[in-house]
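Consider the tokenized backbone below.
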């Protein structure tokens, strides 16, 4: 499979390159939270239509990844973590990636509309537009609050899944949205603590670049303390049972402990870690488990609780 590279020459791309363009690891997370919203919703959706709805969420998320890589191809090329992505490495042409992303985005919204309802399709369209225009094109390169505001883009899937079943939204999916929204900053800031050199080189004002490592650690701690009450709110407000509430509380306590270790990490006078950001790396890994625990508990609670 050939494509036009950055230099204008023809280069070879593989199916794996096109898959990488979709950011599959991100898609897995988005699909899981969307699936949880669908399963937690009251009512019934035919299994084929339910599968189609989840597929549309996956395709829409993949479209966001492709368009994001098209727009960020200049900064991806100078960042060590992203330099081998398909576009900056020349394996897929920028124009092809953009066309691929737009086609997937349109197809996902149209199919969601046909398979479920206009509300689910509209929220899916809004989520794609938010990620591409608000986060990627506007916030990411302009403000250290990019992750805070842009975190909404990844928080839409539970609303989409719920709306696919019910044709509307309710307070529980809104709280699911809020959980992912509040979870995103400490999750991503933990990653950026040890990859800030890449962002500085690319001119992206991620918080460790614009405010420093010490301020970022405090932000992680504060946002974690704000996150945990949101995670237990469905239980506290009677929208879920202890089947969800107890794991959520325990997982939240662990998150606070890991955030505290990041804050108290050994640092030099400039706030730079003397342990190569080992606590931040641990928090980043745990944060993925944390979200998985919460949304697994939502699913179990929906069937048992």
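A designed sequence for it:
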């Amino acid at each position: 499979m050939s494509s036009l590279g950055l230099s204008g020459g023809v280069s070879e791309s593989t199916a794996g390159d096109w898959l990488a363009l979709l950011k599959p690891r991100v898609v897995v997370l988005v699909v899981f939270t969307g699936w949880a919203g669908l399963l937690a919703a009251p009512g019934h959706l035919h299994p084929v239509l339910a599968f189609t709805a989840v597929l549309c969420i996956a395709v829409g998320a993949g479209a966001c990844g492709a368009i994001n890589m098209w727009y960020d191809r200049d900064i991806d090329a100078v960042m060590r973590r992203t330099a081998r992505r398909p576009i900056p490495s020349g394996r897929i042409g920028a124009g092809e990636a953009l066309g691929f992303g737009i086609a997937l985005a349109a197809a996902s919204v149209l199919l969601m509309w046909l398979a479920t309802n206009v509300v689910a399709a509209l929220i899916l369209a809004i989520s794609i537009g938010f990620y591409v225009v608000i986060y990627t094109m506007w916030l990411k390169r302009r403000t250290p609050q990019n992750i805070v505001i842009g975190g909404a883009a990844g928080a839409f899937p539970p609303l989409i899944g719920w709306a696919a079943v019910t044709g509307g939204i309710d307070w529980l999916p809104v709280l699911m949205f809020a959980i992912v929204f509040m979870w995103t900053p400490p999750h991503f800031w933990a990653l950026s603590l040890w990859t800030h050199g890449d962002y500085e080189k690319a001119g992206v004002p991620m918080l460790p670049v614009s405010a420093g490592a010490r301020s970022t650690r405090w932000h992680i701690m504060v946002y974690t303390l704000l996150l945990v009450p949101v995670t237990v709110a469905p239980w506290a407000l009677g929208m879920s049972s202890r089947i969800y509430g107890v794991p959520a509380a325990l997982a939240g306590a662990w998150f606070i402990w890991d955030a505290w270790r990041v804050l108290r990490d050994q640092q030099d006078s400039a706030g730079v870690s003397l342990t190569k950001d080992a606590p931040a790396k641990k928090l980043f890994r745990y944060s993925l488990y944390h979200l998985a625990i919460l949304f697994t508990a939502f699913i179990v609670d929906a069937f048992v609780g």
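Residues 1-10 have pLDDT under 50 and may be disordered.
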